[in-house]
Amino acid sequence: MTPEEIFLSAIQYETKIRDLYLSAVDIVHDERGKEIFKTLAKDEQSHIDFLENGLEVLKADGRIDPAVLNSSIPPKDLYEAQIEAMRKQIPENILGDVKRVLSSALKLEIETSRFYADARDKTQGPIREVFEKLLEIERRHEEVVQIELDHASNYGCWFNFMEIDMEY
């Protein structure tokens, strides 16, 4: 697979996830939930824009700058301190079919992360750096979606930790 073909496949992955997040905005009734999905959709759109631009650059001269790729989703260690404050702001009942959307989103994020890991392993130089950075960003998305799914599922997990312990 050429770098151009990998970029085209990456655009397809990002578009699929972006479209899911945009559809979730209409499904979820909770304003906080809508904002989360809007933020994730915007982040995915920025990846699409970057990949489309990168594809043009690759076709023109083969050089691409991974430093311009960013995410609005911070690394987990930057938001861990805000977990308790965030939990207090989440409504007890998130309306709409949010669990179905979150489950689908998590599957797509994991699938996309696997694609980027494979793409990273098959490329080198700045293109490898691009896919390494995209992989890092997608893993952040996985974390955010998992956190939201845990809360919406109401089975006692928050940020992948048990909120309550029934054992003594």
Task: Describe the 3D structure.
The chain is an all-alpha fold. The chain has a single domain, classed as Ferritin (Up-down Bundle), CATH 1.20.1260. Helix content is 71%, strand content 2%. The chain has 6 helices and 2 strands. It has helices at 3-27, 31-60, 76-79, 83-89, 98-121, 125-153; strands at 157-158, 161-162. The protein has a two-stranded antiparallel ribbon. Strand 1 and strand 2 form a beta hairpin. Residues 78-96 and 157-161 have low confidence and may be disordered.
Keywords:
168 residues, mainly alpha, Ferritin, two-stranded antiparallel sheet, 6 helices, elongated
How would you concisely characterize the structure shown here?
This protein is 71% helix and 2% strand. By secondary structure, the protein is mainly alpha-helical. It has a two-stranded antiparallel ribbon.
List the helices and strands and how they pair.
Layout lengths: L2 H25 L3 H30 L15 H4 L3 H7 L8 H24 L3 H29 L3 E2 L2 E2 L6
Antiparallel strand pairs: 1-2
Helix pairs in contact: 1-2, 1-5, 5-6
How many H/I helical runs? 6
Uncertain spans: 78-96, 157-161
Strands of the widest sheet, in order across it, are 1-2
Order of helices and strands: HHHHHHEE
What's the alpha carbon Rg, rounded to whole Å? Answer: 17 Å
**Biggest sheet, open or closed, and with what strands and sense?**
2 strands, antiparallel
Structural class: mainly alpha
> How many angstroms does the end-to-end distance come to?
55 Å
- How much helix is in the residues? over 70%
Q: What would CATH call the homologous superfamily?
A: Ferritin, core subunit, four-helix bundle
